[in-house]
Write a structure and sequence with these properties.
254 residues, alpha+beta, nine-stranded antiparallel beta sheet, six-stranded antiparallel beta sheet, 6 helices, 15 strands, 17% helix, elongated
């Protein structure tokens, strides 16, 4: 017998498009000046900014950042759902060729909102913001596992069934052809994920960071329901030498 698979609201999320920022102010060296003389702090600041820009790897500056939500369904539960009912047994040959989970829009048409494999299905933020509306994640039996309602202002209402794990993810892809001769080879070793709001990274972020097969860097963290809470995360991929960072702001209302 299948457990309760009814949807319940998890959160409303808003992700600000990533932007390249300085992760810290330049430290300016001061020196004694004659009485009545003016020290040109702004000139020093501009010089420090230019020095920081010279240290910024071109491939990092030209990185493509993407964000989204990942829904993970326990394999045993998904298999039990797919095996439930006579219709599944009659369509077994078709099911073996088709993906087990698909996104469908309000009209019931399949839409590509992200990668899907082994019970893990992505929703890419850019794709849903381009077409606000309601989307449902369903298996081939028609069981709905997650639903998102995308508003005109970019807010996404998320509802899931019990046992579905939800994670927020941020991914950086690099075009290594953009690397300049002056970029040192190990520049990727200088990159770290960190919080720019003075707090620790979101709890349970041990699922990330990770390096994907194509060399992309990815951070994931599990969404934990906290009724009534309003959380804002300033998560950044930081170049520790130049101090430039790709910043993503994630707001969650439970």
């Amino acid at each position: 017998m299948l457990p309760n698979l009814s949807l319940s609201r998890l959160m409303t999320a808003t992700l600000t498009p990533p932007r390249l920022v300085l992760s810290q102010d330049a430290v300016l060296m001061t020196r004694p000046v004659l009485e009545g003389a003016e020290e040109n702090v702004e000139e020093q600041r501009q010089m420090a900014l230019q020095a920081s820009q010279r240290q910024l790897p071109a491939a990092f500056a030209g990185a493509e950042l993407s964000e989204g939500i990942l829904f993970s369904i326990p394999a045993a539960l998904l298999s039990r759902s797919l095996a439930h009912g006579q219709s599944f047994r009659k369509e077994r040959s078709f099911i073996q060729q088709a993906p087990p989970l698909v996104w469908k829009d309000a009209a019931g048409l399949s839409v590509d909102l992200g990668k899907s494999a082994a019970g893990r299905t992505e929703l890419v933020w850019k794709r849903v913001l381009a077409a606000p509306g309601r989307y449902r994640l369903v298996d081939l039996r028609g069981q709905c596992w997650a639903e998102v309602e995308v508003g005109e202002r970019g807010q996404v209402e998320v509802a899931v069934v019990p046992h579905v794990q939800t994670q927020v993810w941020i991914e950086a892809r690099f075009n290594h052809e953009q690397s300049a001769p002056s970029d040192k080879a190990p520049w990727r070793d200088r990159l770290i994920w960190k919080s720019l709001d003075g707090r620790n990274l979101p709890r349970k972020s041990e699922l990330g960071p990770s390096v994907l097969p194509d060399g992309s860097l990815r951070m994931e963290w599990v969404v934990e329901a906290k009724p009534g809470a309003n959380l804002t995360h300033h998560v950044a991929l930081v170049d520790t030498v130049s101090h430039w960072a790709w910043l993503s702001v994630v707001q969650q209302t439970f």
